[in-house]
Write a structure and sequence with these properties.
By secondary structure, the protein is an alpha/beta fold. It folds into 2 domains: 195 residues, 2-enoyl-CoA Hydratase, Chain A, domain 1, CATH 3.90.226; 47 residues, Orthogonal Bundle (Lyase 2-enoyl-coa Hydratase, Chain  A, domain 2). 48% of the residues lie in helices and 16% in strands. The strands form 2 sheets. A 6-stranded mixed sheet has the order 1-2-3-5-7-10, sandwiched between helices. Helix 1 links the parallel strand 2 and strand 3. The longest helix is centred in the first third of the chain and has 20 residues. 39% of the residues are buried. The model has no long low-confidence stretch (mean pLDDT 96). Bound molecules: octanoyl-coenzyme A. Octanoyl-coenzyme A (CO8) binds next to helix 2, helix 3 and strand 6. One of its GO terms (biological process) is fatty acid beta-oxidation. Keywords: Lyase. One of its GO terms (molecular function) is hydro-lyase activity. This is Short chain enoyl-CoA hydratase.
Length: 263
């Protein structure tokens, strides 16, 4: 695949997408967003990809936001379309029927924080910093930040972070529920890939069902969410993985899951 601003590699069932503009702290320009959209589609369509990991090149940043050089030149219509493009790409990550882990190795600011929040969960380096500093540029988050941050950390804290532009460290982000785990900086990628590879060996039917039910259930009332869960629980039994998992337990052996994301 022909990419200039990202690296895309697949190993042991895991697609690793690396934002690769370290001189601009991996800021998202229109081309990078377009390449991300193509990489997500490639990960979706390849049965060999069972888990996706996003990270940033270099030692300093995951993604330091939308590219401010580009923002500075935009008229209202261009800004509206760029926001929509980013939101569409981030929704494609949420809609991917495979787990997506954000491996946040440094600054995750503005669009970078919004990108990480569109993943299923975030593993962060102890040097990572999170924030929505758009207020300092005279604008607001445009890639879903006002919405996803409020859903993850609560309305008041989200408003405080967006209104002050304050940066928080990985430990604070973990305490707020934004980050799932914090690792020493040097160990982050290895630990994330280890977790991703272990997840890649699990039932993809069950992984897809968990993602679907948690995401759709969060936007519904409890009874509707539980009804979705019961449906998806039943669907798990339509594939071979449920039989394999329960049988392997009773036979005291490791299960071998063969379900496919596309069937
Ligand atoms: N865009 C473009 N270039 C950037 C960005 C960025 N977001 N962030 C850093 N860079 C560049 C710097 O300009 C600098 O380039 P150069 O070496 O050519 O001068 C290089 O990266 C290194 O950065 P610094 O020298 O500033 O590094 P420091 O370690 O001193 O500071 C910071 C690191 C704190 C991360 C600092 O670079 C910073 O504050 N960056 C901007 C962070 C920010 O405001 N992000 C939000 C951007 S707005 C946004 O994301 C909106 C999303 C929704 C858009 C909706 C569409 C309209």
């Amino acid at each position: 695949m022909d990419f200039q601003n990202i690296l895309f590699e697949v190993r042991d069932g895991v697609a690793l997408i690396t934002f690769n503009r370290p001189k601009a702290l991996n800021a998202l320009n229109p081309q990078t967003l377009e390449e991300l959209a193509r990489a997500v589609a490639a990960a979706r369509d390849d049965d060999a990809v069972r888990v996706v990991v996003l990270t940033g090149a270099g030692d300093k940043a995951f993604v330091a936001g939308a590219d401010i050089t580009e923002l500075q030149k935009m008229n209202p219509l261009e800004a509206r379309l760029f926001a929509q493009k980013g939101q569409d790409v981030f929704f494609s990550l949420e809609d991917l029927p495979k787990p997506v882990i954000a491996c946040v190795n440094g600054f995750a600011l503005g669009g970078g924080c919004e990108l990480a929040m569109s993943c299923d969960f975030i593993y962060a380096s102890d040097k990572a910093k999170f924030g929505q500093p758009e207020i300092n540029l005279g604008i607001i988050p445009g890639f879903g930040g006002t919405q996803r941050l409020a859903r993850l950390v609560g309305r008041a804290k989200a408003k405080e972070l967006c209104m002050t532009g304050e940066m928080i460290d990985a430990q604070q982000a973990k305490e707020l529920g934004l980050v799932a785990k914090v690792f020493p900086h040097e160990a982050l990628l290895e630990e994330t890939l280890k977790a991703a590879t272990a997840m890649a060996a699990k039932s993809c039917t069950a992984l897809r069902a968990i993602k679907h039910v948690v995401d759709r259930g969060m936007d519904a009332d409890l009874k509707t969410g539980c009804a979705l869960e019961a449906e998806a629980f039943g669907v798990c039994f339509a594939g071979q993985d449920a039989k394999e998992g329960t049988t392997a337990f009773l036979e005291k052996r490791k299960p071998v899951f063969k379900g496919s994301f596309t069937s």
